[in-house]
Amino acid sequence: MDFNLSKEQELLRDGLGRFLSTRYDLEKSRAAAKTGAGWQPDIWRGFADELGILGAALPEGVGGIGGGPVEVMVIAEALGHALVVEPYVDTVVVAGGLLQRAGGQAATALLEKVAAGTAIVALAAAEPASGEHWQDVSTVADRDGDAWVLRGSKIVAMSAPLATHLLVTARTLGGLSLFLVETDSASTGIETHSYRTVDDRRAADLVFDGLRLPASALLGAEGDAWPSLAQARDEGAAAICSEAVGCMRKVLADTVEYCKQRQQFGQPIGSFQVLQHRMVDMYLELEQAVAAVYLAVLNLEAEPAARARAVSAAKATVGRAARFIGQQAVQLHGGMGMTEELAIGHYFKRLTALQFEFGSTDFHVARYAGLTTP
C-alpha cells in the first residue's frame, strides 16, 4: 500500500509548515490563550485567505477544495507540531462533516462561511449524566407551533466560547436530532459558563432553558442524527490523533536536542546509554502511533464497523504513546519540563488532554474489544 503523499498534499504540508514557523509564535499564542478571546483571529483569517486550509477538506460547491481525510491528516499534524489552539478540528472537521451530511440551505450557507473563515462552529454533545456516550441524550427539543423549544444541559463543549454557531444534539419525538443555534441571536434561554482548559483551549458548559429556535434550526431529518454524529466523532478522533503525532514529533525532537546540550558529569546526558534507550523507546512509540493513524485515516470512508475499529485502535495506540512520550520528555528535561518557560510543558499538557477528547483511551479500548469479540 502506498503511504506517500501526492504532490498537492506535499505542497499543502510545506506551505502550512512555512506559515506556522514564521507567523505562529508559541509565546504569543499562549499569551492570547490566557487573555481576551483566547485565540488569534488574524491567524484564522490567514488560514482562510492565505492558505485556504479551512476549505481544503470541504466540497468545492461551498468554496472548498474538495479534499478528504488525508488532507485533514496533513493539516492536523502540522497544527499539532506548532501547538495551534485555533479550533480547526472542532469547526472544520467535526462541525463541517455534520453540516455536509445534514444538507439543506442553512447548512450549505454556514459551510460557505466556515470555508471563508467568517464562522466558528462548535458541537455541544456531551452531557453530565452520559459523559462519553453521546447517544444518551437528556436534552429535549419540543415543538411549539412552527418553532422548537430546547431544554437541557451540555458539558465541555469545546470551542463554544469562540463560536458564532453551535450544533446541539437533543431528543425529539422522532429520536436523536441535531439543531443549529446562532449564538449572537440566542440572548435568552441559554446560559453559558466558559473556561480555559488545562491545555489552553476554550470550552463551555451550557444550559438551555426554554431556548426558542425556528423550524429551520433542525438539521437533517428529525430523529436521524446518530449515524452522522457517530461518523463525526470518529473523524474528530482521527484528526486529533494526527494532531498528537505532530505534537509527539516536536516533543521527541526537542528532547533529543536538549539531551545533546545538557551537561552532567562533564558530558552531554545524551551520551548516557540508559537515556539513549529511553529516547529509542519514545521513537518506537511514535512510529506505532503513526502507523495506527494511517490505518484510521484510510478507513474513515469504510463501512461504520470497520471505521470504528480502525479509529478506536488508533485512539488507544496514540493515547498510550502520548502518555509515554510526554512523561519521558518531562523526566528527561528534569524540573524545567513542567515550567511555562519551556515549550515541552505546554506540549505535555496538550498530549494529556488529547487522550480524553472524542473518547478516552479506556473508552476506545472497550469499544474495540466490543467490535472484535465474536
Which key terms come to mind for this protein?
10 strands, globular, 374 residues, alpha+beta, single chain, 17% strand
Quickly describe the structure:
It is built from eleven helices and ten strands. It is of the alpha+beta class.
Would you give an account of this structure?
It is a single chain. Helix 1 runs parallel beside helix 4 and helix 7 (226-261) runs antiparallel to helix 8 (273-298). The protein contains eleven helices and ten strands. Helix content is 52%, strand content 17%. The strands form three sheets. A four-stranded mixed sheet has the order 1-4-5-8, covered by helices on one side. It has a four-stranded antiparallel sheet with strand order 2-3-7-6, with no helix packed on it. The longest helix has 36 residues, at 226-261. It is globular. By secondary structure, the protein is an alpha+beta fold.
List the helices and strands and how they pair.
Blueprint (H helix, E strand, L loop, with lengths): L6 H17 L2 H9 L6 H11 L17 H14 L5 H15 L2 H12 L4 E4 L15 E5 L2 E12 L6 E8 L2 E8 L7 E7 L5 E13 L3 E2 L6 H36 L1 E2 L2 E2 L4 H26 L5 H30 L9 H12 L6 H12 L2
Parallel strand pairs: 1-4
Antiparallel strand pairs: 2-3, 3-7, 4-5, 5-8, 6-7, 9-10
Helix pairs in contact: 1-4, 4-7, 5-6, 5-7, 7-8, 7-9, 7-10, 8-9, 9-10, 9-11
Mean pLDDT reading = 93
Rounded Rg: 21 Å
Order of helices and strands: HHHHHHEEEEEEEEHEEHHHH
Helical segment count: 11
CA-to-CA gap between the ends? 28 Å
Helix content: 40-55%
Strand arrangement, major sheet: 1-4-5-8
Profile the largest sheet: 4 strands, mixed
Number of strands: 10
How much of the polypeptide forms β-strand, as a percent range?
Answer: 15-25%
**What low-confidence regions span 5 or more consecutive residues with pLDDT below 50?**
none
Overall geometry comes to globular
What structural class results from the helix and strand content? alpha+beta
